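ok, trying the design again with the full structure, not the truncated one.
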């Protein structure tokens, strides 16, 4: 087994590796997805600082705008024969 590769699934080595990863991670189950999300959403992260609520409102507004454009296109479609 080369360094950096995982042991085959279901083997004793894989179980030991998983056990070792769980015990050395520190946070355990308390970190979860919230801990991962907080790592991405920090003050020193590069880029725009937009809260998740603003992203949600902007995406719903964009979907509504596209839906209105589709409806207007259907209503005002004029066939030129």
């Amino acid at each position: 087994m080369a360094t950096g590769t995982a042991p085959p699934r279901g083997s004793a080595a894989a179980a030991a590796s998983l056990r070792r990863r769980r015990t050395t991670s520190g946070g355990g189950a308390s970190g979860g997805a919230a801990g991962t999300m907080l790592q991405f959403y920090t003050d020193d992260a590069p880029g725009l600082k937009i809260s998740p609520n603003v992203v949600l409102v902007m995406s719903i507004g964009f979907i509504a705008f596209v839906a209105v454009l589709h409806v207007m296109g259907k209503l005002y479609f004029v066939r030129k024969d």
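Keeping the full-length input from now on. The radius of gyration is 25 Å.
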